[in-house]
């Protein structure tokens, strides 16, 4: 089973800035990330090599304004293998305080994307 986390950033104009996504293997510990696209790398400031094998919960992007409720919703969706949309605040690698922005995250199990 694979988990796919797609993120779409909303700009202040209301338009989306494009799709960023990761793909994770739900059969290994921590649902390790096995792929991320260039858009995801650009959004978070990490290289692909730094992101590979990290948990798909993206806890490396959490910061002071990341809500515990959103974190719990992502974890619950992963445990239950259910699709879910969550708005969460992620932080870029090198400038966490200046780069906090809400991200709409959608989690999909491999069963729902066939």
From TrEMBL:
Domain PAS per the UniProt entry, residue ranges: 29-97
UniProt-listed PANTHER family: POTASSIUM VOLTAGE-GATED CHANNEL SUBFAMILY H MEMBER 2, VOLTAGE AND LIGAND GATED POTASSIUM CHANNEL
A Pfam family reported for this protein in Swiss-Prot or TrEMBL: PAS_9
SUPFAM superfamilies in the cross-refs: PYP-like sensor domain (PAS domain) (SSF55785)
Highest taxon, organism lineage: Eukaryota
InterPro entries membership: KCNH_animal-type, PAS, PAS-like_dom_sf
GO molecular function per UniProt: inward rectifier potassium channel activity
GO CC term, one of those recorded: plasma membrane
UniProt-recorded name of the protein: Potassium voltage-gated channel subfamily H member 7
CDD domains for this protein: PAS
GO BP terms: membrane repolarization during cardiac muscle cell action potential; regulation of heart rate by cardiac conduction; regulation of ventricular cardiac muscle cell membrane repolarization
